[in-house]
Each structure stands twice: as structure tokens, then as C-alpha cells.
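Holo prediction — cytidine-5'-triphosphate.
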Amino acid sequence: MPTASALHFVGEATWSALSGNPATTEVWESVHEVPHVRIGQAADLVVVAPATADLLAKAAHGLADDLLTNTLLTARCPVIFAPAMHTEMWENPATQENVATLRRRGAIVIEPAVGRLTGVDTGKGRFPDPVEIFELCRRVLARGAQGAGTQDLAGRHVVVTAGGTREPLDPVRYLGNRSSGKQGYALARTAAARGARVTLVAGNTELPDPAGVDVIPIGTARQLREAVLKAAADADAVVMAAAVADFRPAVYTTGKIKKIDGQEPEPVTLVRNPDILAELSADRPRPGQVVVGFAAETDDVLANGRTKLARKGCDLLVVNEVGEHKAFGSAENEAVILAADGTETPVPYGPKEALADTVWDLVTPRLAETHP
Ligand code: CTP
């Protein structure tokens, strides 16, 4: 649904052709369908992206002079505004008051990004990263605007590990795994959205840093251990979503291992890595800290999960089934969260953000008990 200004930037034909839908600013088209009321009533979510200073002002004051602003007045679903404007316009008290008004009424107004703006200037007001907007939309659809806005982790510090470790064999080769880091990043992003200070210890991922999260990159299991123990010293919760290598090559060869004609390769001997989850659970860096582990299983998923929960000694264990096409690299996940008190919480197949939110839903009451 374009505004008249949007049609200056991109023509109506392009919007229609790319979306496969009519694109109009008009309330006087297809009047028999009463579009200015029907579209808003039928929507599950309205996303205004980009939201200009003018549009925010109109929305805050309830003006309704085109199809979009009419729709905003009739929508009963959550509404997200993704502002984009020059810094001066964003910081102007008029805009700030309009934003505060919209937020007070339950709309979600994303903070604009900082960076290059249209023209030569740089600053706050840049259109938020579309990936972040998309993730927020999924979160709001899963939890509703109220749920998506809860700040139940405010004042808490949480540590999340993500991705996979790589154990070097020589300067060019390593033993690694297929973890993409998406689940850990979803945990970090959702914790930040719920108000937590978040340290994300990230192993070998190619994902952009989530906004407002302190990211510590690591390579090996031993580096991960060092980073986690340091960050966990004042943490309320530690969530070990990273796929940590259980073994590493016993010997690191400083020069590249060469093949020698007529000779078989040397076998690779492996040694155990420290089990960081078990260590943290047994000897919590901060008393009362909540520790959460992940278990990826291929067979006897629940039985193996229960045994692992007991063996590791953590408070919660997120158990998911992995296989050729499951979990790794995908944006979706399905799991059962086992708790040390015997409860089981199944999480249906859905976005990794939804699973992340369920983990925090289970962590929060445990924090309240131990760390009022
Ligand atoms: N983990 C860890 N340190 C390791 C290995 C794993 O902290 N050296 C953590 C992972 O981050 C995850 C959990 O332990 O949260 C489960 O890891 P997994 O490899 O499934 O457990 P294992 O004890 O290795 O069990 P198994 O290999 O028998 O499945």
C-alpha cells in the first residue's frame, strides 16, 4: 500500500508487478468493497516500512487522507513502524512526541539504525536492516504486540553461545560441524528484545551481529570455554546453544600436512575437549545462575535427552532431532525442553525465534526464584 510519496520513488506499475497485487493510494477505487475499512480489519499485522516523519505524525494524530492512513485507523492487529529519515527530523521534538504517542498506544516503533543516510550525511535515522524488521514481524505474529514488547529480562545479564567450534589440524584444515549459529543468534536477539544485556560468544558464523548485543568471536572449544567462563562471572543465565567439538586433534601441525607419493596418511589421533556445559553446571560462576544446554540427537531423542540432562547437571535441556534436513542451517526448529524438575515443554515446528522465546519464558521464572 504505497503513499503518494512512495509512488514518486517507485512507480505504481513496479509495485503491482512485483507484489502481484493492486497498489494504490486511493480510497475511491473498488468502493463497493469498502477497502479503507476491509483491509485494516482483515490484517494480521501492518508494517509501515519505511515510516517517514510525515507518516508518523499522521498516524499519531489519526489523520486519514489516503488508503494507508485509513487502514492504520481500522487495523485491530499489531502495527510496526520502521522509521527512516534524516537525523534532524528523527530528533525533532515533534517526531519524538509522535513516536512516544504511538508507542503508548501499543504500536511498535523500531529504533532507526545509525549509518549513511540519503545524501552525504551519516547518523541516526537510517532504515533498519530489513532482516531485523522481518524477524521482528515473525516474533510479533508468534507472540502478539504485547508479548513481543515484554521487558522481563531487564537488568539481567545473559550469556549465549552460538555456532560451532573448529579444531585445527594444521594451518589450513580443521574438524568442524554444520552449525549455522541461527538458533543462538535468535536467542541473543530475543533476549536483547526482552531487555537483557547480552553477551554472544559466537563460533564461526556468517551472521550479522544482532543489534545491541556484545559479540565475542571464538574459534575453538578451548577459546569458547575461556570466553564463556569470563562472561559468565556476573551472568544471570548461560545458554549453551553452540555445537562444541567433543574432540580435537591431539597434535597441531604448524606446517601444512603434505601428501607423500606411495605413502598412506598418518591417522589423526583425537583427544577430549573440556565439557563446558557440565563444568558450568557443576561449578556455577555466579550462585543461582540458570544454565541451559542443547542436545542434538538423531535416535531415541527423548530418552537420550533425559540421560544427558542428568549427566550434564543443567537446569534446562533443549532437545531437538537432527538429520539430513533438520535443524542445521534452517530457519525453523522443533524441540522439547526438559527441565531438571521433571517438566517437559514441547515446542512445535516453527521459527527459531519462537523456540528462543520459549527458552526465555522458562528461564525467567527460574531467575526470579534464585535471584530476586
Ligand atoms: N557442550 C559443551 N562442551 C562440549 C560439548 C558440548 O559445553 N565439549 C554443550 C553443548 O553446547 C550443548 C550440550 O553440551 O549445550 C550438548 O552437547 P552434546 O555434544 O550433544 O553432548 P555430549 O555430552 O557430547 O553427548 P553425545 O556426544 O554423547 O551425544
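READOUT: The radius of gyration is 25 Å.
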